[in-house]
Every structure is written in C-alpha cells, then in structure tokens.
Amino acid sequence: MKILIVEDEMLLAQSVKELLETKGFSADAVGDGENGLAYAETGVYDLIILDVMLPKMSGFALARQLRRQHIGTPILMLTARSELEDRVDGLNAGADYYLTKPFENAELLACVHALLRRQGSQIDELSCGRTTLSLDTGVLACGGEHIRLSAREFDVMRMLMQSPDRNISKEALLERVWGYDSSATENSVEVYIGFLRKKLSRIGSDVRIVAVRRMGYHLEAES
C-alpha cells in the first residue's frame, strides 16, 4: 500500500516515511501544500498523512480541494494545533482522523491501520465497468477471464483505474511509476500502455485505454 506524507518539517516527514517503510508500506513525502495536492490528485495513494500548517496551501485547503474533486483517499491530519475548533475544522474539511503532535509511533501506526481497514474492499480491488484489478495479486479480470500483470503494468493500470474519468499525463506516469531519477522516457509509457491494451483485449475487457493528445490517458467502459 502507498502512503503520501505532506509535512513541511522535513525531519519529521523523513522519520514518518522510514517508520512506514519498516512496516512494509511504500511512502512518498512532500513539503508543501501545492506539491501535496499534485501528488494526491494522481489517485495512487491509499492514505494521505497531512499537516495543517503548510507553505503555499494549508492542509485544510488541500483536503477541501480533494473532496471537491471527489477524491476519497483517507486523510490523517497531523498538527500541533490541539484546540477543539481546529479539530472540527479539519474534520469538516474532509479529514478522517486528527492526530495531535507530538505523538507516539505506535499511535500513528494504529491510526494508519484503522483508516486502511475502514476502506474494506476498496483497498483489495479496483473496478471500472466489469473489469477489476486485484491489488493483492495483480490480476486483471473481466467476465471470468483473467491475466496477471507485471509489476510495472500493475502500477500503470492502478493509476488509471483509481482515476478512471481523469486524464493521467505521461509525465505523471513517469514520475509515479518509474520515479524521478529514472532514465525512462515517454516512449516507455507508450510501450506499457500498448502491453495493457493487449492484455485488456485478451480477457475480453469492456474497458479501453483512451489517449488524448497532450493530455494523457484515461479509461472508458462500454455503456
């Protein structure tokens, strides 16, 4: 599972990132609200750990923007502000839980696990039309037919299925799937989109990957 940390105290962000990774999670950390929003909008994260006091965009504003876009990723707010009014504001903005700094690692992990459990089947499987993607096994299935995806095919398909109505740019796919330090090019994205189209066809999927010039890719299911 993949977790986004939006926290401008970089020592704390790195500490939380390392803690989560020791527990088997994949984690990314960014230090301001605008970058946090850009990362969160990709839809690849199972949970967002969000500070309130951030440069460029507050945690409250970020949470409200995500909820306006109908992005339902669970949000755990971390903040030094413990007043009741602040906690209420955070929950009203769209946060699912509010954890006050300083906190114990065990308390943070308990909150993370509780919020992920609350997602239930949404964490285990994604769907678009009659086509499903198992997040446990990496199997793509439709109407009784199924096929296993490679690790990179899975990551690309997961991004597309988590935001089926939004165009995902090649740049976003490169950054989130291959990583900032990768030497991969946009051609790499095109190659894997081709692989996925063949596999969707092989299982008789009712979903197709649509390319929009200069915008990226999105999924469309047969009506």
Briefly, what is this?
With 223 residues, this protein is of the alpha/beta class. It has helices at 10-22, 33-41, 59-68, 84-93, 105-118, 121-124, 151-162, 170-178, 186-202; strands spanning 2-6, 26-30, 47-51, 75-79, 97-100, 125-128, 131-134, 139-142, 145-148, 207-212, 216-221.
Keywords:
223 residues, alpha/beta, Rossmann fold, Arc Repressor Mutant, subunit A, five-stranded parallel sheet, four-stranded antiparallel sheet, 9 helices, 11 strands
CATH first level of the largest domain: which class? Alpha Beta
Distance between the termini: 31 Å
C-alpha-based Rg, rounded: 18 Å
The total tally of domains equals 2
Unreliable runs, pLDDT <50, ≥5 residues?
A: none
CATH architecture of the largest domain: 3-Layer(aba) Sandwich
Write down the overall mean pLDDT.
86
Tally of helical segments = 9
Q: What is the count of β-strands?
A: 11
**Strands across the major sheet, in which order?**
2-1-3-4-5
Major sheet summary line: 5 strands, parallel
User: What structural class do the secondary elements suggest?
Assistant: alpha/beta
Could you explain the architecture of this structure?
The chain is an alpha/beta fold and 223 residues long. The protein has two domains: 2-119, Response regulator (Rossmann fold, 3-Layer(aba) Sandwich), CATH 3.40.50; 124-221, Winged helix-like DNA-binding domain superfamily/Winged helix DNA-binding domain (Arc Repressor Mutant, subunit A). It is 44% helix and 23% strand. It contains nine helices and eleven strands. The protein has helices at residues 10-22, 33-41, 59-68, 84-93, 105-118, 121-124, 151-162, 170-178, 186-202, and strands at 2-6, 26-30, 47-51, 75-79, 97-100, 125-128, 131-134, 139-142, 145-148, 207-212, 216-221. The strands form three sheets. Strands 2-1-3-4-5 form a five-stranded parallel beta sheet, sandwiched between helices. Helix 2 packs parallel to helix 3 (59-68), helix 7 (151-162) packs across helix 9 and helix 8 (170-178) crosses helix 9 (186-202).
